[in-house]
Known about the structure:
The complex is a heterodimer of chains A (236) and B (240).
Chain A: H1 2-14, H2 24-51, H3 55-69, H4 73-88, H5 94-119, H6 123-131, H7 136-151, H8 153-166, H9 178-189, H10 193-223
Chain B: E1 2-11, E2 14-24, E3 29-33, H1 40-47, E4 55-60, E5 63-64, H2 72-77, E6 79-82, H3 94-104, H4 110-123, H5 139-151, E7 157-161, H6 169-184, E8 188-192, H7 196-202, E9 205-210, E10 213-218, H8 220-223, H9 230-239
Helix pairs in contact in B: 3-4, 3-5, 4-5, 5-6
Amino acid sequence: MLEILREYGLMLLIGEYPHGKLGGLALTLIISVASLIVTFPCAVMIALARTGQSRIFKALAGGFVHSVRAIPLLMLIFWAYFALPLVIGFPIDATYTLIIAIVIYQAAYLGEIIAAGIEGLPKGQTEAAKALGLGYVPTTFRVILPQALFNVIPGIVNQLTTIIKETSLGSIIAVSELSYVMLQVNSNEVTKPLQIFGILAATYFILCFVLSQATGWLERRIAGKRTGRVVVEAVA
Amino acid sequence: MIEFQGVSKWYGAVKVLKNISAEVEKGTTIVLCGPSGSGKSTLVRTVNRLQPIQEGTIKVGGTDIHARSTNVNTLRTGIGFVFQQFNLFPHLTVVDNVMLPLRRIRGQSRKEALPTALLMLERVGLADKANSLPADISGGQSQRVAIARSMILKPEVLILDEPTSALDPEMVGEVLRLLRQLSSEGITMMCVTHEMGFAREVSDRVWFLKGGELAFDARPDVFFSSDTHPDVRGFLSSIH
């Protein structure tokens, strides 16, 4: 196992870079974080539509969430890979294809998490904002979202763990992320699948374990502050 | 200042306000009391349209609050509203709570709004708590901050929905003292409360609601006298 790490360690970390495209663990992390960053505003919009007054937006967002949750991510990746270029008329890089698919998929899940954060706030918060004469925009962005998003930080970090695992599906469309790199290593070595996929599993495990521990820690810290002292300067 | 004309409201099939007609004159203080479920809170919450009504009209300062031309947010900036549970925004400091309306409705910068907000906090005796978070102050102080916040846009009407019911007994006094002061300064006030001492001393009229009806509307000397409405007598003896 050490032998494999010695020989392919760098490849596992950064793929063929600098002689080729960046790949491996680095690309996995970049895709994951980029997906989360793009997903976030989409998820906020879905959550606002889901919890808002407009029936049309509510129905649209609800339809989106239920449709996405009823199909596997792999299907979305295929659609983005094969159908999207036909629709937009030009080919796009497989890495972007993967990000697009993950964003669509995760927007539904993260949207539900944020919506739960909004619905979990005491009704009095919205009422107090209304009673002051605040309109929808300041009520949403100054009163509701800062609190709701703070409360769901653990949920958001937890979704990052899920996204990291989902990027492994990129290997099917030849995105040179972690799993794809290790598949290549496996085809070079042929006789050491146990070691190779052992290393792959361990890498995902370490990454996700650390994040899930962080989620637990955040959860405990935030739980004590939810009803009272809430510091959200970073969000507000 | 505030006119109710034939106001009725239903929650589903349950009629919670029954044909209420009454008037609150400018600069007067009305105390609303009655058994729980009698519609007191619902009635005061109709004034700033937190609760819709199905029948009748409500006018504030001569304006029909349900008219098409009435902007609900503008209406609300003219009516301070204080809740039983304070409803301070926990992620904002005391002073940020108080100046939120100045900043987000009047469009003032933090620098412009700060002196007004601090002055208001001084009026409620809490200038030293300006930078505290709501979780770090007592219930009585929270309610005084909530009153300061509701008064920051200088509304002509102040509505209070059981402002002392969620407070520990030793904190009721500080809030009532502030309300007494505001009442004497001539704001039009509607206050739902079980504090009958406050009603007796401060109010100009006491409204007694029962089963969604305005059963009795009298000056406090009559309300608390021996020839009051029989239901009031029963109610008063039940809460003492």
